[in-house]
Amino acid sequence: MSKAKHSETLALHAGWRADPATGAVQPPIYQTTSFQFRDTDHAS
Q1: What is the pLDDT along the chain (44 residues), one digit of tens a residue?
Q2: Which of 5, 28, 30, 35 has the greatest count of CB atoms below 10 A from its CB?
């Protein structure tokens, strides 16, 4: 039995193929963030 996929599922997975090295079928999640500083003193 084949179920139709929701448009949200298709949009999320469109164009992604399994990673040949690891076999992963989901895009990786990168846990990163960015900051904006006024100047170099504020950043330090």
Answers
A1: 567 778 887 777 677 778 888 888 877 788 888 889 999 999 88
A2: 5
How is the chain split among helix, strand and coil, in percent rounded to 5? 25, 0, 75
CB-based contact 11:17 (threshold 8 Å)? no
Query: End-to-end distance of the chain based on CA atoms, in angstroms?
Result: 59
The radius of gyration of the chain from alpha carbons, rounded to an integer in Å, stands at: 19
Backbone angles phi, psi at 13, to 5 degrees: -100, 0
DSSP assignment, residue 22?
T
